[in-house]
What we know:
The protein is mainly α. Among the domains are: 7-40; 125-190, LysM domain (Membrane-bound Lytic Murein Transglycosylase D, Chain A). The protein has four helices and three strands; from the N terminus they run ααββααβ.
Amino acid sequence: xxxxxxxxxxxxxxxxxxxxxxxxxxxxxxxxxxxxxxxxxxxxxxxxxxxxxxxxxxxxxxxxxxxxxxxxxxxxxxxxxxxxxxxxxxxxxxxxxxxxxxxxxxxxxxxxxxxxxxxxxxxxxxxxxxxxxxxxxxxxxxxxxxxxxxxxxxxxxxxxxxxxxxxxxxxxxxxxxxxxxxxxxxxxxxxxxx
Length: 194
């Protein structure tokens, strides 16, 4: 009987230890299940964020490639600067072409050009009678002579150190037709801004 009691005592002790171990194991399993559930919830939230960001990127991409795309002022200024640079090169090319035509005319013995090579310009400053909204504009009066062209007039003033373009002359003289200059008509040559 003693053996039986010893065995019973050992068995009871083993069952109690096993039960305690099962409780600890169950607690660890519950803890791990909770952590796994937290990770799955966090992953779900991250997936929703990623989907929202992908949608936002897609919308931005559509806006930037769509017809509603707008340019910022910096881009517009760059474009304006490039256009002005191209216009200056065009003007220089035009003057170079006229010089080459004059050289060819001299070599061939024909007339140099249909316009005077250097009109007589006045460098006495006057105010523009057609003042702009910003106030009176300083410049020079010029009387058109036979054979004059706007390009030749602008070149003559540039030769005198007054930087002016044909476009500036046209803007200062609304209604002036560069293809049909009237002999004896006074036009205004704007002075460069100081």
